[in-house]
Each structure stands twice: as C-alpha cells, then as structure tokens.
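User: I need a structural model of Aldose epimerase from Limnothrix redekei LRLZ20PSL1 for a docking pre-check later this week. Nothing fancy, just the predicted structure tokens so I can convert them on my end. Input:
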Amino acid sequence: MFQVEELAERWPVFRLTDGAAQSVLEVVPDRGGIITRWAIQGQELLYLDRDRYQDPNLSIRGGIPILFPICGNLPDNRYQLPTGEAGILKQHGFARDLPWMVTGSDLRDAASITLTLDATPTTLAIYPFQFRLDFTYRLQGNQLEIIQNHHNLGDRPMPFSSGLHPYFNVTNKSALAIDLPVTEYFDQKRQSTGAFDGTLDFEQDELDLRFPVVDRLSATVTDCQQQQTLSLKFDASYRTLVFWTLKDKPFYCLEPWTGPRNALNTGEQLLWLDPGATHTNQVRLQLQHNG
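Assistant: Understood. Predicted structure tokens for Aldose epimerase:
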C-alpha cells in the first residue's frame, strides 16, 4: 500500500510510504525541496545534520540537496557568460535554499510527489533566465527515483548545470567497496589528477574528488560490514561524479552532476536549453541486501 501524507512540523513534511516494503521517504518543500529521510525496514540510509536543518539561515548538510543552476562553486562566486550576462551565485546555486510548491502526487504504482520551483524577481536578479523546475520523487520497494524536468520559459537559450548531493549514512568507511565508472580523478583539495584504482584514503581530513570522465551510467557502493549494496543509476546528462566526505563525519556523498565546478564560466559540459524546451534528468537509487 502506497501513501503520501503531510506532517505538521515547523516546516511541513511530506511522508511517502510503501507499506509492503516498509520503506519511507520524507520531503520538505519549504527547505529547498529537499529529501531529508529515506529509510527501509527501519534502517536510515541518509545522514542529516539536525542543527543545520533547524537553522533557516544555513544550508542543510544532509539528505539530498538539489543543485541548480550550478554545481560546486564559482571563483569569487562570479560568472560571466559569452552572451554578456554576468552575476553572482553562491555555491551550488539557489534551488536548495528556496521554498518549492507541491504540485502533484500519485499512488498508482509508487508513492510519488511532484515539487515545483519557478523563477522569481529574486532569482532573476542573479540569474536572468525564466525557468521552471518540476521534480518528482517516486518511492517503490527498495528503490527511489528522482525525475527532474527543467523548463526554459524565456525567449533565449538558458545555460545551467544540475546535480544532486546525497549524504549517505556510514558507520565504518573502511568497510566500503566502491565501484565507480571512472579511471581518473581530480583532487579538488590538492588540485591534482591521478588514476583511480577503486581505493580511497579515508584518513584524509577531507576527500573531495571529481571524476570527469564517466564510461557507464551506474555506480555502486557496497558496505561490507552491513552486507548491502547501494546502486546509483543515472542518465547520460550526468557527465561528472563527485565523491566527498569528512574524516570525522559518519557520511559519504556520491554526487551526480551534469557539469563541473565553474561550468557557467568555462562552458565545460554546460547545458544550454532552447526557449520553450524541457530537459529531463533521471536518477535511480536502490538498496540491495547481500546477506
């Protein structure tokens, strides 16, 4: 039995449930349309910093934040487009900080909810493009699907990058076996490149690795201690993966991005959407028990 219900909390929470699978998803539209919780049979899959969540002046660290219209940061937070537009955008853009509207729900073959974010005078002042984002979250069994529709409602091409920033719970990072569709990495902290052999040094205070060439549309992380595998599948729009974690925090982030940091300035892997057109991205997360 699928269910979508609204919980009356400080910010309304929409809870999606698949009763047969004992899976739960919680979404908070007013806090950037963020997924704050995904649990299966009582196991919490996502990390959430509750103190940051309760402070509306801080970006949320945890859950699955939405990245738009940039992924990562810009030098001095500034961009200059070849078409002449210029402006200031803070890290990961503004979609994760703005209130979204609930515009639909469906219980036919999954528990699903659709959220919408429209351009406003505030966004137009820093990113002068008329857009609409429609994100649909679908929960079915051990699977979470995120369907993202980006609409250009303006009369000129719209440049953007899009991404997700999921924070996954982990108790023992040394027990992770990581299978990524990549052969090389760029270390953001050290500003260096190297060959990727599947191992990561979790003794570093911070790991911030970008994988710029993706040769298949899926990745997996197996927690050998928990005897389970998390799979991430994505469409061809995502041409960059990022792995980020902090040594003293019980999370890791495996992030699909359509383009790298500073794409709005460099044009690297930057998406351009024609007037009146829609660009759709799709990400699917699934948990498999190995025991």
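Before docking, keep this in mind: Residues 186 and 193 are 4 Å apart (CA to CA).
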